[in-house]
Amino acid sequence: MDIDLDELARQAAESRFSSAWDGCVMWAAGLISWHLAHHLDTWAPLSAQPGNTQTHIHQVNAVIASALHATAIAGQLDAPDGAGLLHVPLGQAADALLGDDALDNVTKASPPDPYLEPLLHSIPWSRHRRRRATRRHGQLVIEQARTVLTAHAEQGHTVGHRLRAVVEANYAVG
User: Fold this and answer.
1) Phi and psi based region of residue 98 (left: phi greater than 0; alpha: psi -120 to 50; beta: remaining)
2) 108 or 70: whose pLDDT is higher?
3) Whole-prediction pTM value?
4) pLDDT, tens only, 40-65
5) Which of 43, 136, 46, 150 is nearest to 96 (CA)?
6) Contact partners, residue 122, CB within 8 Å, separation at least 6
7) What pLDDT sits at residue 132?
8) For residues 42 and 114, what is the distance between their CA atoms, to the nearest angstrom?
9) 59 vs 3, which has greater pLDDT?
10) Distance CA 34, CA 83 (A)
């Protein structure tokens, strides 16, 4: 059975969601799938942290989805059905995760997802925490999310430009 990846990419481009946030979560997962398939070695610092690797991946997914969502909101690409999300600039989303403003940029997306919201808030962000290792974990999550977005931005300007790669990664995994 031959799979027509171009047709799958076309169908994915026509996907509509119950909210722009849900679309961001889905596209973030796709971006991560591709990145895990092609750049697994960059996940080593985060994988070395205490805890479950799947939880780390979910945390990175929450940060990427939030960065995509915040960027979509800023660019007025957050149509309720997620139709504008393919036009979200990946470099801009990656830049939202730079410096001291990273937490503000991530949280301004206000994820309305009952599963990801507590996950996002479980990441130890605070600069005021006494435990250095806990703070470091939060930094590693943000750094990994930025690494994923930057890798995609180097190969395509927008989420839509990376759509075929995401479909290929999801097909290879699934």
Assistant:
1) beta
2) 70
3) 0.84
4) 999 998 888 877 888 889 889 988 99
5) 150
6) 59
7) 53
8) 29
9) 59
10) 21
* Average pLDDT value for residue range 141-148: 92
In whole angstroms, give the CA distance from residue 150 to residue 143: 10
If we measure between CA atoms, which residue out of 173, 35, 150 comes closest to residue 95? 150
Give Cα 117 to chain centroid, integer Å.
Answer: 14
Residue 160: Cβ within 10 Å count:
19
Burial string for 129-150 (b: 16+ CB within 10 Å, else e) reads eeeeeebebbebbbbbbbbbbb
Contact predicate 27/68, CB 8 Å: yes
Look at the block and give the residue holding tokens 């960059």: 42
Q: What is the DSSP string of 65-117?
A: HHHHHHHHHHTT---TTSGGGGG-BHHHHHHTTSGGGHHHHHHTT----TTHH
**Percent of the chain surpassing pLDDT 90:** 36
Token look-up 């994820």 returns 111
